[in-house]
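Researcher: I'm preparing a figure for a lab meeting and need a structural model of a single chain. I don't have an experimental structure, so a prediction will have to do for now. The sequence is pasted below. Please return the structure as tokens so I can convert it later.
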Amino acid sequence: MATTADIKNGLTIEYNGKLFQIVYFQHVKPGKGPAFVRTKLKNLENGRVIDNTFTAGAKINTVRIERRPYQYLYKDDMGYNFMHMETFEQVPMMESLIEGVEFLKEGQEVEIVFHAEEEKPLSVELPAFVVVEVTYTEPGLKGDTTTNALKAATIETGSTIMVPLFIEIGEMIKVDTRTKEYVERAR
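Model: Understood. Here is the structure written out token by token.
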């Protein structure tokens, strides 16, 4: 059993019978009244973020989670199937538990977050950046490079993102999976 003094970003706690990860916290000591801790909690089951305030010194239940390396294999009627990189054990995951699913490619390495005591998979985390091929985009016009104009481009996973005008079909680009934005040409 921990207290609010042990709160830090990324800590997983059990709150109201559900698992939450602390996204943000702030210790507040007002001039009048008791101190408290203001937090933003992300529900690990559905991904929703809620605001919550704990009184200073309140008891919280921490939960031990583990991140394990997996490889994406294929999608079927059971969901998205992943294989553990060392034990070759396969785990199906629902689409709602995968953040950035539109950038998932076959053979890609990801991390699956597990509840350590229950051995229950909670979510799938893609790498921060992925390299993908542009499969379709309109041709850029010569001389349009002075502005920060963007155009739509379809990538190999079927998703559409905005890219600069100089990007052509067949180029490899780096995309940020958290913001879903173009970063740079891949080298």
